[in-house]
Amino acid sequence: MTPAPVQDGQLLRPATASRLSWLHALPLLVRPIALTMPWVTLITGCLVGTGYLAFLAHVGDSSRSPLGQGTVRLAFLPAVAALAFVTRAPFRPLTQTTPVPAWVAQAGHLLLATPVLAATCWAQLRIMGGTIPAHTLESPPAVYPLIAQLTGWCVVTVAVAACVDRSRYADLGGAVAVPVSFAAIALTWFAPVTARFLTQPPATARSVTITWYAVASAALALTGMAMRDQWRRYSRSRLRRP
Amino acid sequence: MTAAGGGAALHDPDAADPAGGPAPAGLTARSRAPRLRTVLALTRVEASALARSPLILAGLLAGVAMVWPLTGQTEPLWWNVGWRIGSGQLVIGMTVLVAAQLAAGRARRNAMGDLYASFPATAGIRTAGHLAGLAGAAPASLLVIAVAAVVAHLHGAIGSPDIVVLAAGLLLVIAAGAAGVAIGTRFAHPLAGVLGALVLFVSSGQSHLPWSAGLWLYPWESFSDQLARLPGPLAGYPPAGAHAVELGGLAVLAGVVALAVTVRPARTRAWLAAPGVIAMAAVCLAGAVQLRPIPAADLNHLVSEVADPASVQRCTTASQVRYCLYPAFGSLLPSLEAPVSGVMAHVPGRPAQQLTIRQAVSLSLPDPGLTHGHPDQQVSQWVAQVQQAPGSASVAPASAVYLPVGNWPAAGGQLADAHFDLALAAAEWVVHLPGTSAGSGGRPPCVPFDQAREAVAIWLAVLATHPSASELQAGLGTGTGFFVVVQNTLVRTWNYPGMTGGSVMAAGGGAQNTATGYLLASAMASLPEQKVSHVLTDAWGRWLNWRTTDAQLAAALGLRIPGVPATQTLSPGKTIAPGPGSGTQNPLCTP
């Protein structure tokens, strides 16, 4: 038997429909994604930094020294470190065999982590704001560049972790991603070439914000590509002889 | 009994000892002999893995990068450099902590506990191997010390290294690794090691943390001391020996905790209590020693060195200039003499007074890290003395040029800038700048607006040090440049090389140079030196007069006054008042 002739596009439509049919399963996936989320790791990282900041705020209150944005950056690092372990997909070879794309679980974890990180950032900024005396002559520095910077740190860390997760070092994805991303953050902070755009001063608040969000966008695109990658890169350097 | 022996050894993922108490006598006799060999073999493997760990190699690079500026930018003072090397060790320590935690938590993290339990080596032996394997981190630590020492030596380090301080840095790395092993035996997740490293990092920046009197109790303080400003080593600051004991005790304590977590037999644990208690006692004792106040006699001596430098400094006279340096800083003399002698050799007239170039210390008091444990009255007395010190006064007397201790560059472009800075300070002193109108108490510096003596001073400094033309030109700034307001006139300024380095405190606080003065001096430098010298010698007193203008000097030399739009008079009735965006008026330099 031969199939009946079809018009252009008629074959495509069922294919597209079947490719996106996993969307119907999304509501069912919410529970397992939430259950496999590394909540303890993430919340531990967030609480450690926030607790440290609260301790400093308590001490600073007694010594009348307000906390600066630099301290908030320091306190947010544990949360960034914890985020590096969120993108890990331990059963990726298994989930790849299901009709649902394998990256859905990782993306779901990241989506679940976002409000936790936002709440942590909000709490830390509140703690910092609480240490600034009410009747100061100078207005406190704007927080939007800081938020952009912390967002950039988070997304860069996720991108590094997602890339490592597709490598032969996947088992140590987070452990590798944290020092790599921290080193990248330190380099951009101290290297004169990048500090001109990413550090305030010499860069203005507006340019710092724009640059960090641009970095975050690029890192997000890289994260998407890494998560959609089906295969781990096990090969060693081509220059090395077998 | 092990799995290899065919018995049921999988009773516990992390312990290979049989359940129900100590091993039988036969087994103990059989296993005790090779136990040491097993530990040594594990040590070799773990040390090798640690030494080759990319994490630690990255930490090594970061440590060297952190120490490099501290040893290579300003004159290296060993009583400061020795402690600063520890900041690089702190970075290595953080990476060693993470690497050790990853290694110690390997079995549990990979869910391979059952497999490891089947090996002849027990969990305790493996932990001992991890702890002894920390020796693999020592090469990185020693390499940082060696690199820093070589760099400091090449830059003419002042003083001598304190072996105890350097050893304490090595102990910091080992203690961090032991802490990593202790964390890894209990918490296998890699985040635990990362958080441990962050805690170590935060403890180094304890300027945010309370109790600055106990700054030496933190693993390695980095920002709150004043070692770089001291004119010499101060006993007990830092208390290096006690700090080394504290770090050693912490390393032993962490090792004991790691073993106590993994070792099963109660008897062995009881044996571990002894070194644990001893380590804890050592840490407490070392802490108490570090909290002891610095002896009042030593602080009195330091304060007198700061407040009255003439009482301790050694002075040398050369080319009618007196150089007074602290005893340890004699090696700096040739570096100071060269630019000043270059200026004096070109001065047409002999100065009436003798120029003194003197070192000064800008000690900041009160500082609980220095003065804790002393009565408030005594501390107030020291503060009052230090406030009168030449280095902390906002204006240097008109008869002396001061060099803040710890700010003189070691080499490179910064040293060349400092040479020009010193030469200009000497030249300005020769032409009586800035005079009595110097800035003080936060007032802006005076401006030698349209004064020929300014161009003469810059010309002398250029002749003495031969800076590059591009560097001098850069002082004009880009675009319209920088301006100050003098007598309701916008005057374009010129920032000389080394102006922001803080290496030199010019006589009278220094003046703010003008673009016209620099451009005229630049034109003078393009003329034959003999011609300029002849014009200056003929009427030296006239050129020193503050009323002699740039135009008069240019005419005498046959030059055209520089045509740069350097000045702009404000519209009638408009004045500059203090306030946001308008700034304040700078005074005119007068005699």
Description of the molecule:
The complex is a heterodimer of chains A (242) and B (591). Chain A is mostly helical. Chain A has one domain. Chain A is 67% helix and 0% strand. Chain A has 10 helices and no strands. Chain B has 591 residues and is mainly alpha-helical. Chain B has 2 domains: 3-204 and 239-290, no CATH class; 309-569, no CATH class. Helices cover 53% and strands 5% of the residues of chain B. Chain B has helices at 25-51, 54-72, 78-104, 106-109, 113-117, 123-132, 138-154, 163-186, 190-204, 240-262, 266-290, 296-307, 333-346, 368-371, 376-387, 412-430, 452-465, 469-474, 515-526, 529-538, 540-544, 550-557; strands at 314-318, 321-325, 355-360, 400-404, 483-486, 489-492, 567-569. In chain B, the strands form 2 sheets. A 4-stranded mixed beta sheet of chain B has the order 1-2-3-4, covered by helices on one side. In chain B, strands 5-6-7 form a 3-stranded antiparallel beta sheet, with no helix packed on it. In chain B, strand 5 (483-486) and strand 6 form a beta hairpin. Classes of the chains: A mainly alpha (242), B mainly alpha (591).
List the helices and strands and how they pair.
The complex is a heterodimer of chains A (242) and B (591).
Chain A: H1 12-19, H2 26-36, H3 39-63, H4 69-83, H5 92-95, H6 103-130, H7 144-165, H8 173-190, H9 192-198, H10 205-228
Chain B: H1 25-51, H2 54-72, H3 78-104, H4 106-109, H5 113-117, H6 123-132, H7 138-154, H8 163-186, H9 190-204, H10 240-262, H11 266-290, H12 296-307, E1 314-318, E2 321-325, H13 333-346, E3 355-360, H14 368-371, H15 376-387, E4 400-404, H16 412-430, H17 452-465, H18 469-474, E5 483-486, E6 489-492, H19 515-526, H20 529-538, H21 540-544, H22 550-557, E7 567-569
Helix pairs in contact in B: 1-6, 2-3, 2-7, 3-7, 3-8, 3-9, 6-10, 7-8, 8-9, 8-10, 10-11, 12-15, 13-16, 13-17, 16-17, 17-19
